[in-house]
Design a protein that fits this description.
alpha+beta, Glutathione S-transferase Yfyf (Class Pi), Chain A, domain 2, Glutaredoxin, five-stranded mixed beta sheet
Length: 202
C-alpha cells in the first residue's frame, strides 16, 4: 500500500493507523500548492480532488477520504481492535464520531488556514470550534477515549485535527479532558512513529 500525505495534514490520521495496524506500506509526500508528488507526478492524476489523503491499495485501487481510509485499514487488521466489529452499535457510534469530527471540527479549521477568509468568518469558525470542543470535553469526562476504554481510529482523527489548535491560536486550556486525551494519544508509539516519518518530531 502507498499513502499520499502532506506533513501534519489530515493524512496524518491514516498514517498513524497504518502504524497502529502494523501494515506494510510506503508513503509519498504531496505538495498541496503545486499538486506535485515528491516523485514529480501530478497528484490530481491520482486523486482528482487534489487533496490528501489518498491510499493506493495492494490491488491498485485508490481510496480517498480519511474516515473511509481509516476504517478500511482497521478492517485489514481486525486483531488490532482499531474499530468495533461491523454491524455492532459500537461500530455505528464510532462512525458517528468520525462524521462529527470531519464535519464539525475538521471543516471549521478550514477558514482559519485560508488567508482569504474574512475576520468575521474566522471569528465564526473559532466560536464553532469552542462549542464543539465543549461537547467533546464533556464526552471525555471519565473516559480515556471517545468510545470509553477502547481506543479506535476515531481517536486518531480527533487527535490529528485538534493538533492544529496551536497553529490557529485556539486556546484549549479550558478543556482539561481534551488536553489529557491529546497527551494520551501523543504518547502512543505508533503516533510517534508516524509523526517522525512526516518530520513533525525528532
Amino acid at each position: 500500500m502507498k499513502l499520499y500525505f502532506s506533513p501534519g495534514a489530515c493524512s496524518l490520521s491514516p498514517h498513524i493507523v497504518l502504524h497502529e495496524a502494523g501494515l506494510a506500506h510506503t508513503s509519498e509526500k504531496v505538495d498541496l500548492r503545486s499538486k506535485q508528488t515528491a516523485g514529480g507526478v501530478d497528484f490530481r492524476s491520482i486523486n482528482p480532488k487534489g487533496y490528501v489523503p489518498a491510499l493506493e491499495t495492494d490491488n491498485g485501487a485508490i481510496l480517498t477520504e480519511g474516515p473511509a481510509i481509516v476504517q478500511y485499514l482497521a478492517d485489514l487488521a481486525p486483531d488490532k481492535l482499531l474499530a468495533p466489529a461491523q454491524g455492532t452499535m459500537e461500530r455505528y457510534q464510532m462512525i458517528s464520531w468520525l462524521n462529527f469530527i470531519g464535519t464539525e471540527i475538521h471543516k471549521n479549521y478550514s477558514p482559519l488556514f485560508n488567508p482569504a477568509s474574512s475576520d468575521e468568518l474566522k471569528a465564526g469558525a473559532l466560536g464553532n470550534l469552542q462549542q464543539r470542543y465543549t461537547y467533546v470535553n464533556s464526552m471525555l469526562d471519565g473516559r480515556d477515549y471517545l468510545g470509553g476504554e477502547r481506543f479506535s481510529v476515531a481517536d486518531v482523527y480527533l487527535f490529528v485535527v485538534t493538533n492544529w489548535a496551536g497553529r490557529v491560536k485556539l486556546d484549549l486550556s479550558t478543556f482539561p479532558n481534551l488536553l489529557a486525551f491529546q497527551q494520551r494519544i501523543a504518547s502512543r508509539p505508533a503516533v510517534q512513529q508516524a509523526m517522525r516519518a512526516e518530520g513533525l518530531i525528532d
